[in-house]
Every structure is written in C-alpha cells, then in structure tokens.
Amino acid sequence: MLTNGLLKVPRPRPIDIRQAHEQVFSVKPFVPYHFSKPYTCGRVRALLIGINYFGSEGELGGCINDVVTMLKTLERIQFPITECCILVDDPGFQGSMGYPTRENITKYMAWLTHDARPGDVLFFHYSGHGGQCEAEDDSFENYDQCLIPVDFDTAGSILDNDLFYLLVSPLPSGCRMTCIFDCCHSASMLDLPFSFVATRDMSSGRQGYTMKCVRNNNFSHGDVVMFSGCTDSGTSSDVHNPGSDAGGAATQAFTWALINTTNLNFMNILCKTRDLLKSKGFKQIPQLTSSKPIDLYKPFSLFGSIEVNQRQMSLIPQHLPPPHLYPPPQQQYIPSQQYPPPQAECVPPQHCLAQRQHYIPPQQYPSPQPQYVPPQQYLPSQPQYVPPQQYLPSQPQCVPPQQYLPPQQFQSIQGSSSHPQGQSAANQAPDSKKPKPKRSQYPFEFYSKK
C-alpha cells in the first residue's frame, strides 16, 4: 500500500536461510568484462538487481538502467569482477540470470556470501522499491525495512533482519563487502551497528565527523560498508536527464563520484553524492552505515579492510560470535537431491570395504587385456607388406640359361659346308680363302674310330 510516497507492506514470513544456501550450487556466474589487473588476494563477486515492476501500480522507469550504469562504472574504474550475477525483470536483458523474485533474490544473496574467505571482495547493488512493515514487539524500532521483489503480492517482501543474516552474518574476518541500496526506507536496510549522522549542510572540509553506534547488536567479523539513497523515513527518486535514460538519483550520484573524482576519502564520497542531489533539487539525503566505526578521513576503496577510528575501538565487542555458516563446512559441497546420495560417493570405514570384496573379485581385472592388445589382428598384415613370392619368378626371366644352349648346333656336320645354315656365300667369302682341312684327316679318323 503506497501512502504519501511511503510503501507499507504486511510483515512477511521469515526466510529459510539454510535452504537458500543449499540452492547456491545451481548458480552459474559469468565474467561481465575484461580487466587488465586481476585481483590476486581472493575472489571478486558482484550481484546487481534492478526491478521496474512492469505493468504494476508502482512501476518504475530507471532501475534496470541503474544496473547498466553501475556495471559500466565498475568497468571504467577496472573493478576486477571474476564472478557476476544479474537479476532484472526484463527477459531480453543480456546476462540476466532470471526474474528478481523473492526466491531468486534470497538464493543469489546466499550465493554472494557463500563460502566467503578472508581476502574476498564482494559488491552488491539494488535498485527498486523499498518498504516498511510493523516491527515485532521485542524490537526497539517501530518499523522494519524490507525489499520489494517483483512477486511481492504473492510471495511477500524480504525483511532487513533476513538481509543481515544473508549478506552480513556469514562474512569472516578480512572479507570486504560494499552495498548500495537505491530505494526508499534504505538507511538501515542491513541493520548495521554504525551510522554517519549529520545535517544536510555539512562540509567535507570540516574535521571531526565520526560514525555513531546506533544499535548494540548485529556486529560482524567482516568489513561491510553500505551507501543508501535516503533515510529510513525518506524516499528515493528517479532522475530524467535530458538526452539520457532515466535512473535512480542515488545510483547516478554515487557513480559520478567514483568516476569524476580521485583520491577521495569516505567523507568526500558522501558529501559529493549529497551535494550533487541537492544541486538538482532532490530532497533525499544519502546515508552511510558500516559494520565497524570507519575513520571517515581515510582513503575510500572497494578493497581491503576498513580502517577503524582508533578513538572508537572500545565500541566494538572483544568477543564476537563466530560467523554463521549455512550449511556447516563439512556439508558445503554435498550435492542436493538431484545428485546421487552421498552414501554412495563417500568411503566410510569397514562396511564399504566388505562390499568391495564381494562385488569386485580379482578375476575381473585380467579380462580387459585381450580387448586392448589383440595379437591376432596384426599377424595377417605381415605377408601384405613383405610378399616374397612376388620376387622369385623374376630370376629365370633375367637370367634364362636355356637361351645359350642352341650353340650346340655347330658341333654337327652336315654336307661339305662348314658355315651355319642360313648364311650367304658373300658373307662367308673371307672364310673361303682359308685353307680347308683334307677329307682324309679329322673327319675320316672320327668316323673310323666310331
């Protein structure tokens, strides 16, 4: 229900945090752009959500454009995202993982902080509707803040209490997260313990501003910094710049401060965003909250641990509860129901060993040998490459001794002619001048002996 620009919604049912963490195995992030200098101290994850609520009474015009603007800004400053997920209610948006329903938002928030480690850098951006609902009786607040998913009419909203357990509570020490909420009622959307409290007419050059402890619980091991578009009782507006698409005022102010200024501290960033919105006639006042008391005059960065104001160290409890892990570390990588049961994949003690001896006898191992080395297949190929029979018939063709036997015909004497048959007298003329043996000699004796 929208009343005077403020969205009042019924109190939703709590979110099953453990179930949300069990669904993160189906998330498939992507790398949105290329960067020159990778971050080597851990992973860099980003989750961007933009909801325009097309066709509804509270339709917005610039939330999906805020996702595009934020992604281009991160690329321009070379923020090295290695895992990115996007949720928008536009099916034609390139890179969108799905509609920003209540179930999808909680699942992807759980993915963002799942298995977080020291050195990891996380970034979260939300642009859409924010609302309020009545707080519980034991709360010191009159209202709880909540996010409005695209299916809030049927599924309900997402409380700030659940947002704390999804995004802040699981973070270990040394893990950094930066969150930007461009929505109404967003100052305490994460219920962080420290907040910057000052008037609109503050000056970035003035020294002495500090963070204020606004609650005595919800302390975290991780380092969380949150920029919001307005106070808990305020509203966030869309900007319609000439020649450009509509967008959230807080998103445009924050991205402008990141791109057009250098060497800023936290105080500069906050003052630049407030001054920019004030110059354009907006009444909303961006807010800054954190998990630890930030030294506002230290350089601003999306990386590394928060530099704490030493004068406010006593405000941080010495003994913090361990980070919540959903599920516990021993079961983080156990597949869900769509995979085989873990009992079949594990190797418990002696019970499985007995089954191995029964189902895998040693006789099964020699059988694969003839399949891989069949000697019968290679023996027939030998006569194909070296056929000796092809070369044996060529020997009598090259040296035929029978062709030289006919000269025996000259040993026989027929008639009185001594030259072979077929030769002419002219050819034998020179031989006729030679002296011929007498008939009484050799031939006579030959026949007489015979």
Low-confidence runs of at least 5 consecutive residues: 1-5, 328-360, 410-420, 422-428, 440-450
Reading off the top of the CATH hierarchy, the class of the domain at 15-314 and 323-331 is best stated as: Alpha Beta
CATH architecture identity of the domain at 15-314 and 323-331: 3-Layer(aba) Sandwich
Sheet having the most strands = 8 strands, mixed
Based on Cα principal axes, name the global outline.
Answer: globular
Helix content: 10-25%
Strand order of the largest sheet: 4-3-5-9-12-15-10-11
> Within the CATH hierarchy, at the fold level, what is the topology of the domain at 15-314 and 323-331?
Rossmann fold
Number of helices: 14
How much strand? 5-15%
CA-atom Rg in angstroms? 48 Å
Structural class based on helices, strands and sheet pairing: alpha/beta
Average pLDDT: 76
What descriptive keywords fit this protein?
alpha/beta, Rossmann fold, eight-stranded mixed β-sheet, disordered N terminus, disordered C terminus
